[in-house]
Design goal:
About 25% of the residues lie in helices and about 50% in strands. It is an alpha+beta fold. Helix 1 packs antiparallel against helix 2.
């Protein structure tokens, strides 16, 4: 199951980079909560999360995105294993992009809670920036 979840996260990252927002939407539960890296207000609901991806893609020019580490941890919760499973995912990444004429490089950590019932969907995502540099 961990390999399925691993591939699911890689596919999500491929989808947003290529503007496939239908695939992005399918990756998130209707009632997902996303905590942004700027400690701003949580982004709640699938439509709002998809719009956050769309907004980044419209405002920024992506130069490079790379997953540097991806670990999947099965969460042994008291759930009906016949119908669902829960996984915590830690993903480290590096990204280069241009926004408003300025070039940025960032590294960060995203933490996902993924429920597989019957297909994987993200119910929680938090992101923190580990390093942020202006390249200009």
């Amino acid at each position: 199951m961990s390999e399925l979840i691993n591939q699911f996260i890689l596919d999500l990252n491929h989808a947003w980079q290529n503007g496939d927002f239908a695939a992005v939407a399918n990756s998130y539960h209707e009632e997902v909560v996303l905590l942004p890296p700027d400690s701003g207000a949580p982004i709640c609901g699938r439509a709002a999360v998809v719009e956050s991806y769309r907004g980044f893609n419209e405002q920024a020019t992506l130069a490079n995105f790379r997953v540097t580490e991806l670990k999947v941890y099965p969460f042994d919760a008291s759930i009906d294993r016949a119908t669902a499973s829960v996984h915590m995912v830690h993903m480290r990444f590096e990204v280069e992009y241009q926004l408003a004429g300025t070039n940025y490089w960032e590294s960060g950590l995203e933490v996902y809670t993924v429920v597989n019932n019957p297909a994987p969907q993200i119910i929680w995502r938090s992101q923190c920036t580990l390093d942020n540099r202006i390249l200009d």
